[in-house]
Amino acid sequence: MFTSMSVRPAGNLPVELTSFVGRRDDLTQAKNLFASARMLTLTGMGGVGKTRFALRLASEVRRQFPDGVWLVELADLRQGDLLTRTISTALRIRNESSDPLSILVDHLRERRLLVILDNCEHLAEACAVLISGLLQVAPDLKVLGTSRHVLGVVGEQVFPVPPLTHESTATGLSEAMVLFEERASAADPRFRITEENREAVAKLCRALEGLPLAVELAAAHVRTFSAAEIAERLAHTEVLTATERTRHPRHRTLDAAVDWSYRLCTPEERRLWEQLSVFSGGFTIETAGGVCLAAEPEPTVVGALIGLVDKSVIVRINGTHGLRGRYRMLEPVRQYAREKLASSPDELLVRRRHRDYFFRLAQLGLTDYCSSSDVEWYATTRSEQANIREALEFSLSDPDAVDTTIEMATALRPFWQQSGSMIEGCQWLRRALDRTTEPTVDRAAGLVAASILGFLAGQTGEARTLLREYRELITRPGFDDFSVITPFASALEAFADGHAHLAFEQAEKTVELGIDRERTVLVAEAMALSALCVFITNHERAEEITLRFVHFAEKLGVHLLHAIALYPLGAVRWRQGDVVSATALMRKAIHLYQMFEQPGMVAVCIEGLAWSDAERDPHRAAMLLGAAKSIWRYSQMRLPQAAVQGVTSGIEAQLRQHLGDPEFAQIFATGQELSFEESVALALGSGAEPKPRARKPAAHAGLTRREQQIAALVAQGLTNREIAAKLVISPRTVDAHVEHALVKLGFRSRTQIARWFSTSEHSD
Fold first, then answer.
1. Which has fewest Cβ within 10 Å: 85, 130, 475, 737?
2. CA distance 508 to 632
């Protein structure tokens, strides 16, 4: 039921799959520091356990954040300009806006939540600038970062994460020994620390200086060696000491542990380990087989991969939503392998194979986007977006691959559009186009692709400049193949200028030329634009044109195009007065959109449903408009929004007149408060209508335990003197605690404290 969906998510902290060992005093100290800080950065070398420490710390303070604790993983992000969008994605904000920062700020401004930024060091400057700005405008936001060094945020509190205790005692095991035993018993259930192996384990943990990653890597080998044998091998000078004398001893120790695991691998496993470091965001068996080099065919790659998983070098992650399972390395292990690969003769070839593999994946958008394989194409491309970015970045650095870069970014145009990444697509294309001015066919294709993305995202000025250069270029001999896409780009330009009739003519020209030349993607996109144009112009052929698009999509068996086609047909039916058919068509479109991530098009459909409800249920219509307005703010797809704005404005005026401005504003605001999932449920009629809900204040709001205790007594109506007598403390002390509570809560009176306490989690 809808009511079960109305509980907002409490964050995205992952479930702990293994036990958390030790660090009780460290956690207490870190929590005390965090209580009075807006930004706490956990620093330390790779492998010291910063991420795990951050997750445990966050889980222990999560009740202080009613709007959730959110983990943002940055290890696979290389572009600082994508940081805002990455945070928005982690916070489940459907933020495809051309101004993602304002959307993120609006989301955070009145929420009490904790954001964990994991692995910040390679984006230190971008993180520092963004975090500083967010903390200034979002007073109830707290940030917990992990980094190998200080970020430099104003007001930043730093907490160096120490290794586990590793000096054994006469009365018990050190933290490192406990961790070794637990991880070793996972590898071999028979393993226990006994009197016979206790000293060997203690020696090993001392040699590893209590570094959690090093201990875990060593413990994984108990299936092959005894604890004494592991300790003996770690004691070898050439294993324990890195060659760089300036490197910190703990870095040498970690490298020694990873290097020792590397030495235990077979030559095939070592080579594969190095080559797998080219992947960003993980990989599948298929991608590993397609990119990595093997002495023999694929079975050798698979066999080496199994060996690396067995040695805990690689971790398997189960697939979701029907996707295959993925594999990835811990970042310190990956960085170790990248250093090895950098000195290998395989490096350039492997990186080019990686680029070429994901170039081929990008090209699937030219075929699978308009086929019955569109759901799988979209899900696969989405899951490999980090690798696509890695491939594009490498390709930009290859002076011999400029045209390949442009071709790859151009082929990704359908994905940029359907994933709401039009602006990112434009940026990649512009970077590639800036590398060369040669008047090639690839350059022409890149220019027109970038202009199309720009028009769709509402960046009309830049799009027009790109299109102008494109038109000048294709006047040269040898550019005849662009006769189909040129009228489509012109149609988008005309539409952006408000000339819907001209846009329709150019789109129809594209359909006619595209069908003759079997250009399915362009035909489908032109049909979509034609269908939109005939609706907003109330064209006499509106029913015919919109039905043509639906039948075209059905014939191809394309889920996404079918969803796109259903909306204009539903809009035409609404204009004809058939609200039952209009409602059914738009709800069916929303169902299909759930296979993808299309907030903009879902918002269009929700607005259409509001049109249908305007006369029969004005209250519901007003709420749907509010929900659509909220979703629109997170979409880059400006073209359809602009197309229906006139109709929606008329419906809004009608509802205001019927309900009155105050009631309309209240209902509209309730709709805006809905999450995306709640908005969809309301649109589909799958639950009870939501009620306005007040934001619940934070449970503790930074109050100390004594301040909370006194706040509870204030809520009971006791005076400061009565509280002092009850707690056996001086009235002056009570006065000070009450004053501190007022300052922290931002209140001016004891009555406000009482009201806050009665509505907070303390009253549950």
1. 475
2. 28
Query: What is the tens place of the pLDDT at every residue in 537-557?
Result: 999 999 999 999 999 999 999
Contact criterion met (CB below 8 Å) for 762 and 708: yes
User: What pLDDT was estimated at residue 218?
Assistant: 82
CB-based contacts of 177-180 (< 8 A; 24+ apart in sequence): 177/201, 177/202, 177/205, 178/21, 178/22, 179/21, 179/22, 179/212, 179/215, 179/216, 179/219, 180/204, 180/205, 180/215, 180/218, 180/219
Q: Give the Cα separation of 311 and 315 in Å (integer).
A: 10
Quickly state the pLDDT bin for 319 (edges 50, 70, 90). low
pLDDT in tens, 67-116: 999 999 988 888 888 999 899 888 888 766 778 888 899 889 889 999 99
Q: Which residues contact 26 (CB under 8 A, 6 or more apart)?
A: 53, 161, 162
Short-list 531, 450, 456, 518, CA closest to 484:
518
* Confidence class for position 750, pLDDT limits 50, 70, 90: low
Are the beta carbons of 571 and 535 closer than 8 angstroms? Answer: yes
Q: Is 259 helix (H, G, I), strand (E, B) or coil?
A: helix
Please name the helix (run of DSSP H) or strand (run of DSSP E) that holds residue 743, with its range, or none. helix 731-745
**Residue 142 in tokens:** 């707290």
Establish how many alpha carbons lie within 13 A of residue 76's alpha carbon, considering only the half-sphere containing its beta carbon: 22
Residue 213 has pLDDT above 60, yes or no: yes
Spatial contact of 677 and 696, defined as CB atoms under 8 Å apart: no
Residue type, 163: P
Give CA–CA dist 334/318, Å, rounded.
20
Other Cβ atoms within 10 Å of 10 Cβ, number: 15
- Let me know: does 483 contact 513? Beta carbons within 8 Å: yes
Long-range contacts (CB closer than 8 Å, 24 or more residues apart) made by 575-579:
575/535, 575/538, 575/542, 576/543, 579/612, 579/616
Residue 457 C-alpha from the chain's centroid: 20
CA nearest neighbour of 126 among 78, 92, 94 = 78
pLDDT in tens, 394-428: 999 888 888 899 999 999 999 998 887 888 899 99
Rounded CA-CA distance 181/204 in Å is: 12
| Alpha carbons 644 and 632: distance in angstroms, whole number | 12
552 and 523 in contact (C-beta within 8 Å)?
Answer: yes
- DSSP calls for 460-499: HHHHHHHHHHHHHHTTSTT-GGGGTHHHHHHHHHHHHTT-
What separation, in Å, do the N-terminal and C-terminal C-alpha atoms of the chain show?
24
pLDDT the model gives residue 749? 59
Locate the DSSP E strands across 154-231: 156-160
Can you tell me which residue has the tokens 């634009």?
529
- CA 570 → CA 29, 551, 552, 579, distances in Å? 60, 14, 16, 8
DSSP secondary structure string for all residues of 359-422: HHHHHGGGTGGGSTTHHHHHHHHHHTHHHHHHHHHHHHH-TT-HHHHHHHHHHTHHHHHHTT-H
Neighbours of 756 (CB within 10 A): 21
CA–CA dist 675, 92 (Å, integer): 10
Partner residues linked to 157 by β-bridges: 40
Question: How far apart are the C-alpha atoms of 456 and 465, rounded to whole Å?
Answer: 15
**Cα radius of gyration (the chain):** 30
Query: How does DSSP assign 320-361, residue by residue?
Result: -TTPPPEEEE-HHHHHHHHHHHHTSTTHHHHHHHHHHHHHHH
Lowest mean pLDDT among 68-77, 148-157, 278-287, 740-749: 740-749
User: 152: how many CB neighbours lie within 10 A of its CB?
Assistant: 14
Which two structure tokens, joined as six digits, stand for 578? 């058939």
C-alpha to C-alpha distance for 306 and 663, rounded to whole angstroms: 63
